[in-house]
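Co-fold these.
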Amino acid sequence: MVELFCLSLNHRVTPLAVREGVAFSRDAGVSFLKAVREHCQVTEAMLLSTCNRTELYSTLSVPKEVDHARRSLDLLRDLRGFQVVESPRNYLVTGNQNAVRHLFRVAGGMESQILGEDQILGQVKEALTWARSAGTSGRVLHRLWEWALRVGKRVRTETAIGNGALSASHAALELARKVFGSLRQKQVLVIGSGEIARLLLESLRGVRVGGVTITNRTRAHADELAGDSSVKVRDFQELREALVEADLVVSSTGASEPIVRYPQMKEIRAARGGERPLLVVDLALPRDFEERCGQLDQVFLKNLDDLKEIVQRNLAEREGELPRAESIVEEECQGFFAWLHTLEVEPTIRIVRERFEEIRRRELEGLRDHLDSEAFAKVDRITRRMIQRLLHLPSENLKRHEALRDRELIAIFHELLTQEIPHPRAQRHAGDRESE
Amino acid sequence: MQLGVNTILVLLPVLYCVVGMGYAHLYTRKSSGLASHARALLLGTVALHLLFSLLRGLQIGSCPVASPAEFCSLVAFCIALIYVGLEMRTSDRSTGVFILLAVFLMQVIASVFILSHPQAPERTLGMLTSLHAATAVLSLSGIVVASIYGLLYLCLYTAIKSGRFGLFYQRMPSLEALSLFNSRAAWIGFLALSVTLFCGYFTRSGELSMVARVGAWSAEVLLTWAAWLLYGGCLAAHRVLHVGGKRLAYSTLLGLLLVLSILAVGLLEEGFHG
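Predicted complex below.
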C-alpha cells in the first residue's frame, strides 16, 4: 500500500525568518533528499523549495504518518536549524488526498502569495530534476509530479487565474499593450533613475521592445542604472526630443514641480505628427506631468491611482476564477487517485494472470506430442488470446470499481483470487489428525 | 427545396443566437475551452448560411437579393464571413460578441420578413447586375464591420482616457489592433463599393431603376459617391499620412450613416432600388 505524505513550511503558516532558514539551493536540496531517504525510511521523496515554501513530499510503504512527520521535522532541525512551534503550528502535515490536492493547488498558483503567478510551475519542474539527481524519484511521485504540472497548465489555460498584472511596473506594461498591442517597435522612455525606474527596467527585461532610453537630471545615475545593457542614456536637456520619439513614457523623478506642462506637451504632441499615441505613466509623487496633458488627443496620461485600480481589478478577476480552478484540481485529484488505485490492484491482477498463464502452458505441453508444429502454434495463439479476453473485463473492473477503493476489500479480493483456501472438510481432517 | 430553405431560415437566427451567446460567455469568462466550440459552431452556421444563399439563388435563378430581407440576410452572411476571416488571422475572439449581435439582428429581420412574405416579388438579375448587387452587399458588410470596430475603438479610447478599467477594458484587444481591424474592414467596404459603382454605372439592362437613374444624379447616387469619396479619402490619408485611430473610426461611422441613408432614401422613394 502506498501512503503519500507532505510536510509543508509555507507562507501561510511559517514566518519569513523561519522560511529563510529552510530554503534550499539545488545542491543542498539534493543532499537533503538523500538524507531523507536514509533516515526517514521513505520509498520516494521530492523537495519543492521556493521563496514562499519548502515542501517535502514522500511515499511510505508503512502507513505511520505521525512518526514520519516527526522524523522529517527532526531532520530539518538537525540540518537546517528548524524549530518546531506547535501553537500556532509553524508547519503543515497532510497525507494522501490532501497532500495531492495541496500539490495541485500549489502548481495551479492557488497557494501562491501572488495568486495565479506562473513562476511556481518552473519551480515544480525543477523539483523533479532535484529528485532525479538524488535518486529519490520513483513511479508514484514522478507520476504525481507530471500530473501536477499538467494541472498547473490546465488551470492557467482554462481559467483566467494568471491573467492581468499585479504590480505597478507590470500594470504599466499591461496598459502599454492595451494601447499599442505589441511593443516590439515601440520606444520606451524612462524618466528618473530611482527604485521604480529600476523595477520597470527589470520588468522590461523579458519584453521585446524597440528600444529603451533613460534620462535623469543627474546623468551619472542614469548611466549607472543603464549599466552595460543596451539601454540608451540621454541628457535631461533633450527631454523634449526624447518625448517626441517615445511611445511609452514612465516617469518617476523626485521633482517638486511638474517637469512637463500642458503647453510643452501640446507642442510635443504637434511635433509627433499623425495619430501616434503617447502613453505616459506618471509614477512620481508629486506628479511629473501636469494633469491637463492628458486632455490632449492621443495622449494617455496615467498615474499611480490608475495603476492601483488596474491591479485591484486584476486581483478581483483572479479571485473570481478560484472556484473553477478548484473544480479542475478536484477532478484531477480523482483522476490521480484512480490511477494510484490501479497500482494497488496490480499485484492481484498480475498473480491471476500468471496463474492462468501457467495453467495454459501446462495444458498446452500435454498437447505437444499430439500436434504438428503449425497446429501447436495455432492452439498456442488461440489459447493466449482467449485468456487475454477472459481476463480483460475482470482486470479492468478491478481497477475501476469504486468499492475497491477500500483497502480491506482489496485485501479480501487479493486473497480470493490468488490464494488457495483449504476445503472445510480437509481442514476438519487436519484438525482431527492433530488432536490424535 | 422550399421546405429546406424555410427550415434553414428558421435555424439561422437560432444558431446565430447560440453562437452569439457562446461568444458572450467567452467575453465575460474568457474560457479557452469554450472558444474552440464557439468557433466551430460559427463556422458551421456560416456554412449553413452559404448553403441557404446557394439554394435561394438556385430557386430564383440569380443572386438572391430580390427583396430588402434577402439583401439583409446576405449582408448578415458577409459580415459573419468577414469576422471569421479576421478571427482566423488574428486569433482575437473578444470582439465576436459585438459583430455577431449585428449578424443576429439582421438575420432575425431577414428570416421574419422572408417567412412572413413568401410571395415577395422575385426578380432575376443579369450577370453585371448580380455582380453589382453582390459587391453592394459586400461593401455594406465591410462598412458595418469597420463601423463596429470604429465604435469599439472609440469606446476603448474613452475607457483608457477616463481610467475606466472594467471588463470592457480587460477584454478588448489593443487600440492598435482595433484600428487595424477598422482599416481592413474599411478597405473591403471601399473596394467592394468601387466595384458596385463601376458595375452600376455600366449596367444598362434596366433591371434596377437606380441604375437607370445614374445619369440623373439622384439623392441615392449622390450619397453613394459621397460615401465612396469619404472612404477613399480616409483610407488614402490612412495609408499616406498614417492618419488612423480616432479619425478613421469617426470617418467609418460617418460612412455607415451615409450608406444607411442611401438605403433609407431608396426604400422611401420607390421601394428597394426602385
